Each structure stands twice: as structure tokens, then as C-alpha cells.
Amino acid sequence: MNPNEQVGDPEPGPDVVDEILSRQGTHEGARAGEPLAPREARTFVEELLRSSLAGDEEPTWRLPMPEAENLGRAWAEAGLPGPDLLREALLVCQSVEEAMEARGGRERHGRRRLRAILDEAVVRALMAHGAVEKERRDGWLSFYSHEMRNRLNTLMNATWLLRNTDREGQLQRICDMSDRAIKRMEATIREVRDVEQVFTRPPPPRPGGRG
What we know:
Elements: H1 14-23, H2 41-53, H3 66-77, H4 82-102, H5 108-164, H6 170-193, H7 195-198
């Protein structure tokens, strides 16, 4: 055998990655005029190809897939929903399968292994996306809880003053303070009603505001 002859699937180069990325816009379901993956798409594809050419001793759930996770985090941090990520990741995986088939069809076992790797990569991306969403949701709920406590404390203070002050001219000041707290609480409640849209943004770095 010629020692320079490659055995099995060749190591994919940049041309293979370019071919895979160029295939995406041709698939049914691709949205015209929109990129099907963020800038992490190239490293995601490269990771899929490396994993597909690795040995099959390790179960797919134990394979390191940091780029798949980075892809999911990037979509969540950009405020893009999980279903869109799923669509885009599946299109990328379809392109990988087509490119690998075009460059020399694999035996049945190899195709099954590739499919398992692609499925695992999609799962990892979705899990990372969900983790970012949960972190943002928890941050916003903490922020809103703090804001509501601030307003309630203001109203409790106003009630105490009404019951215990004997000074003239204080009534109007206390009522104005209560009105401000109520209006701010109403604004917070309106935001909570649209909370799913709010969750696409990072929460404020720290709760703030005074009653």
C-alpha cells in the first residue's frame, strides 16, 4: 500500500466546511435573506466533522462538544428563540450529512454513528440555549421581586406615617409618596405581563430603585 494513500474518510479541510455552509440556503425551510447560523456556525461545523471522524469507542453523550454549546449560548444571548435554533442546527446537520455522503458514502454503521453525533450536537446546543434562558429568567424574576418589595415597603411606610403623624401638612406629602409607589408598581406589573419578551434581554446588573 502506498504510505501516502489515505485510508477511510479524509480529514475535512476548509473547502469541506465552506461547502457545508454554502448548502444551507438551498434546503427546504431555509429562510431567504437570513443567515442560518451566527458566526459560531463555522466552528460548529468543524467540530461536527472532527467528531464524525473520531473513533466510535466513546458513546456520543460523552463526546466533548463545546462549539455546539457555544452555538446555543450565542443564539440565546442574541435573544433568538429555541425553535429557531433547532431549525438552524438541523439544517447545518443536514448539510454535514450530504457533504459526507458526496465525498464517499459511508457504510451503514458509519452513517448511524454520524447521525448519532449530529443528534447529540443539536441536543447540546438546545441545552446550552435553555441554560442561558433560565439564567436570564431567574435574574429578571429576582429583579422584579426586589422592585415589588421596594414599592410595598414604601406603601407600608406611608400607612405607618398616616397612623402616627400629628404634624400638619404631612398628609399631602404622604399621599404623593404613596401615589408614586403605586404607579411604579403598576409599571412593574405591566412588564411582568410581557415577561417572555423581557427574558430575551439580560437583567439589570443589580436591583435598584427607591420607593
